[in-house]
Amino acid sequence: MNTRKRWVALGVAATVACGATPLAYAQGGFTLEEVVVTARKRAESLQEVPIAITAIDEQTLQRAGVERPGDYIGLIPNVTIVDTANVGDTQVSIRGIVSTRDAESTFAYVVDGILSTNPNSFNEELFDVQQVEVLKGPQGALYGRNAVAGAILVTTKAPTNEFEGKVTAGAGNQDLRKVSGTISGPIIDDTLLGRLSFSTRQDDGSYSNTFSGRDGVVDFIEDDSFRARAIWDVSPDLTLDFRAGYSEVKAGAINFNAVFAIPQFEAVFGSPAFFADVNQMDANFVFNVPGENQQETRDFAIKLDWDLGFADLVASVAYNDLEEYLLSDGTSATFYGYELTPACQSDRATLNSFTRPDLFGEFFQPFGVLPPGAGNDFVGVYGPYTPTSCDGYQYQERNQEDVSFDARLVSNNDGPINWIAGVYFAEIEREVVIAYGADQGQGFLRQPYVDPTGPNPTDLLFWDEFDTSVQSVYGQLEFDLSETMEVALAVRYDHENRKVMNQVPNVSGSGLNINLPGKINPALENNPDGVPDRETSFSQWQPKLTWSWRPVDDVTVFASYGVGFRSGGFNSVGTDDLLSFWFNSGFGGPGEAVDADLKVRDEYNKEVSEAFELGFKTEWLDRRLRVNASLFRTDVEDNQFFEFFAGPFGLLRAVTTIEDIYIQGFEADFSFVATETLTVYGGLGLLDSQIEENRNRPASVGNDVPQAPDRTANLGAELVYPLASGIDLMARVDWQYTGEMWFHTLQGEQTPTIWNAFFGPGFNQDFSRASRDAYDTVNLRVGLEGESWTVTAWGRNLTDEKYLQEIIPAAEFGGTFNHPSALRTYGVDFSYRF
């Protein structure tokens, strides 16, 4: 408690950040420039809006080198990001509420005023962007379902009525090459304006494959993106805004290494590697099936803005189409499913612990692969993602097509009462595939099902199509109690109908996997005529009440109460049957000996949260110092949580719910114009969280909420110093800190694993060494800025800090799957404006 008080005191006194803020010159000196935001769907001053907001303008985005969302997330206290399995698979935690893999997001992502329902759109390249706003706390009343943690608003640069352009090129280590460009100007006089922009990037990544000896096959990325925007002033009162985009991404995927967490194995075999600290892991990528992720995204939107006199009518239609697949190595070699296949036997003749210690490490520390021969089958400890074909392969698809419509009336701000009234509709079609099969060394068909005669036969398949219909009405009323005090009431009603149709063919597996002798999906065992469709609905009122007061011109005090809602949904059909057979008693399988008592179902409940906040926004020293801070608490019912399961069957991803959690905390940020050329800025976030009820993992009650680090902080400085007429020296340094983070609800409490089915009781997992250690990074940028050009030398993670990006615990497997973060990168960028 004393430590926490000291941190709070530090936050209030020093309030270490949200990026440097541009300077504006005032009488007798210089000040912080006013920042305009659109958080309440109208233009307002950042310091007057009663919401905790971080706004990052175009100049700061450029000087900080922001190119992807992870670059600006680190500048915001109490906001973190995990970016691992594939390019679009980001998990953002805002005040400890994390977007759950395979479920709906926890924040609204809005581009140019239009809500995006594409799950991968958030993690696209950021180029030609005017401003980014990060809103904290529930924003569902105005921004819709799933905005339980907040909203992220991106404003791209609008077309101009004069011809202009920009080209940027850069290069760096890891064979980084990138080019982006923009052309903007009038198409028809000043009535129709257009803008075209593109970005292309190639990066080999930080890691190489030990087995193949190749770079550029692990965490590489190739991204080509194109965007177009046109604004048509149909009349003085009516404007149409058209936006279209296309992107194609090729990248690495599933770049995890495994670490055991079973104390009994350490005791029996005498090897500390069976109960290791995840932070001491040396990443070694040895897969023989290089992970690949390919995405193709198309989007189109039209927004209408019509001044009706008494109000503005703002309406939009948006269309998104995403096609994505992942292919990578499998996980189950140690369970010997493909042990007797010719491919596995052949691989073991040349790829074993005696001939290739560079691939497997010291013998049985913890992995050990024996050559084929009498007595050597079903003996080794192989691990996942091996250089042999013994682990099979996995194939996944995430495809989505959606159409949405939003229309609202916004009052004209002329009186003491302002209001918004709107409706929203969306139709979403999503296809999810998780397939597991045999690697016979004959290549791969990239499709959900491969029959037994194919090169890579499928043995386990989850394949579902989801149809979702959303209907919403919303509104907000803001009224002045006095000249200095305002109350706002917003409310939204969401109704969502969800339907799932199983696409798995009613067939058996290939028979190559001795652990999967039956139907290709376990749900077919109880549904011999095929798995029936499922359908359900979720609905919720989301009110938000806000009070704000400006006792003096440079101070705003505010308080709010809000309800957030995240729709429930379906896991892949067969999830319950598969996990019950392998891990639960009463189902006639190995689970009789494991008895994990899992309560993971084929569907999961909606998530509802209540949030309270008290904050202030202030400016001091003639607007040279800006200090904003907030206290908050969020209580969540049925918090959706991602669980990963690995075992003899291969792997499975599922969403569960934690019945009750709370998260409370403090955050503050400041910007200070120290001199005419130097700005200092920083931020501090503190979180206190607890699991209060968790029926699926009752031993976890009292633990921290996953992905809610107790401390985050950042501190930086930006210097812009005139060297000659029209030429400035720019230098910027950013330090970012993230505290210890847990990734699972179990944090040291022992629970049974599948190994109890093979070796008897006592082989339980213990995740006490599976939290990610605190870490900090330093970024530096130094450059020259001319009137029409900029050249910048930059470095990220200059201290070459080695830390984990993500830890995925698999409790019933008895270990974790760990993804290292990028190492030090550096390079040079050049841009020219015309």
Automatic annotation (TrEMBL):
User: What GO biological process terms does the UniProt entry carry, in alphabetical order?
Assistant: iron ion transport
Q: Its membrane topology, per UniProt? A: Multi-pass membrane protein
Keywords, in A-Z order:
Cell outer membrane, Ion transport, Iron, Iron transport, Membrane, Receptor, Signal, TonB box, Transmembrane, Transmembrane beta strand, Transport
Specify where it is mainly localized. membrane
TonB-dependent receptor-like beta-barrel domain location is 382-798
Taxonomically, the superkingdom here is Bacteria
The record's Pfam families line, in alphabetical order, gives: Plug (PF07715), TonB_dep_Rec_b-barrel (PF00593)
Residues covered by the TonB-dependent receptor plug domain: 46-151
- SUPFAM superfamilies attached here? Porins (SSF56935)
The compartments listed are: Cell outer membrane
Signal sequence segment: 1-26
Q: Which InterPro entries match?
A: Beta-barrel_TonB, Beta-barrel_TonB_sf, Plug_dom, TonB-dep_rcpt-like
Q: Which GO terms describe its cellular component?
A: cell outer membrane
Q: Which family does it belong to?
A: Belongs to the TonB-dependent receptor family.
What's the protein called, per UniProt?
Answer: TonB-dependent receptor
Which species is this record about? Kineobactrum sediminis
